[in-house]
Specification:
The chain is mostly helical and about 290 residues long. The protein has eleven helices and five strands. The protein has two domains: about 10-195, Rossmann fold (3-Layer(aba) Sandwich), CATH 3.40.50.300; about 200-285. It binds guanosine-5'-triphosphate (GTP) and magnesium ion.
């Protein structure tokens, strides 16, 4: 698992010698859960099943759609008594800051895993060839000291993927050879054992909180744009503001749809604000 473009599919391809499923555009690539099976003795002594997931912040799918997809797969496999041997969580060491997408992804991932499964997680850094000098090591230290600290203290391990077959297998072997007990991820227990709906789970709640905050932020920004549109008469500025406004309004609409899909209550006032074109038309008339 991990953000879009972190190198999840590339890792599996490098390990298995497969050539498919890697993205080369700026857009996210893997759009559904992919299963890649490796029979014992092909490369390893064990039967290994790789599960490739689409990253959050996909260009085509909303976070809700991705979480629903991952949750469905985790639920079905757990109902069949299959537990994951380990989870690799991918992070690009070439990312120069830990904000927005990578951070949001990590929070969601932690919620989805829960405590027990953290022991079988390898925080895998990629894109080492994209960083120069000591930059990679410094970022790795920063991740271990700060963002990954609690996961590592609860048993997760950090490893580097150096984009070679050998390096991929060092990481896989760390899981296969550890003989750690297999744990259900918390989301599986919540969905199956506790019979919770996705919105009630910790991962669902994490997304819920994010959506609420997003709607409020969009609402505030739109209000500000509205006010400045009323003040400025310059056509160029107005056009820029109109574009920004329209962009936000579309995002707002999509967020409202996501919240409805999760059956999250959203205030009537906010729903009307995003779904009606009234506000926009009012500016046009000026
Ligand atoms: N330079 C460099 N490029 C890499 C490395 N690993 C992956 N890439 C490239 O990064 C891009 C994205 O890789 P993917 O494997 O498709 O990423 P993903 O995590 O599967 O992305 P989604 O399917 O969108 O969630 C591809 O163009 C890869 O060739 C690496 O270690 N170094
Ligand atoms: Mg992929």
């Amino acid at each position: 698992m991990g953000p879009t473009g972190a190198g999840k599919s590339s890792f599996i391809n490098t390990a298995t010698g497969n050539k498919t499923g890697v993205g080369h555009e700026l857009e996210s690539y893997t759009s559904s859960i992919q299963i890649i099976k490796l029979r014992s003795l092909e490369i390893s002594m064990h039967d290994i099943t790789f599960v490739d997931t689409p990253g959050f912040d996909d260009t085509h799918k909303s976070d809700i759609e991705i979480l629903t997809m991952v949750a469905d797969w985790l639920k079905i496999t757990y109902e069949r008594h299959v537990k994951l041997a380990g989870i690799l969580y991918f992070h690009r060491i070439s990312d120069n800051r830990m904000a927005g997408t990578p951070l949001k992804n990590l929070h969601m991932f932690e919620k989805l895993c829960g405590k027990n499964a953290l022991k079988n997680i390898i925080l895998t850094t990629t894109m080492w060839d994209e960083v120069e000098g000591k930059t990679g090591e410094q970022r790795e230290e920063e991740l271990k000291k700060h963002y990954w600290k609690s996961m590592i203290s609860q048993g997760s391990t950090a490893m580097r993927f150096e984009n070679t077959e050998q390096s991929a297998w060092n990481i896989i072997d760390a899981i296969v050879n550890s003989h750690n007990e297999r744990y259900a991820v918390e989301l599986q227990e919540e969905l199956v054992d506790m019979k919770q709906g996705l919105p009630e789970t910790k991962a669902g709640q994490e997304l819920y909180g994010k959506l609420q905050a997003l709607v409020t932020r969009q609402h505030d920004t739109l209000q500000k744009i509205r006010a400045s549109m009323k003040r400025h008469d310059d056509e160029t500025i107005l056009n820029v503001l109109r574009e920004e406004y329209e962009d936000l309004r579309k995002q707002g609409e999509a967020t409202v749809r996501d919240m409805e899909a999760l059956k999250i209550p959203i205030g009537k006032r906010l729903r009307r604000f995003f779904t009606s074109r009234l506000g926009f038309l009012t500016f046009r008339r000026r």
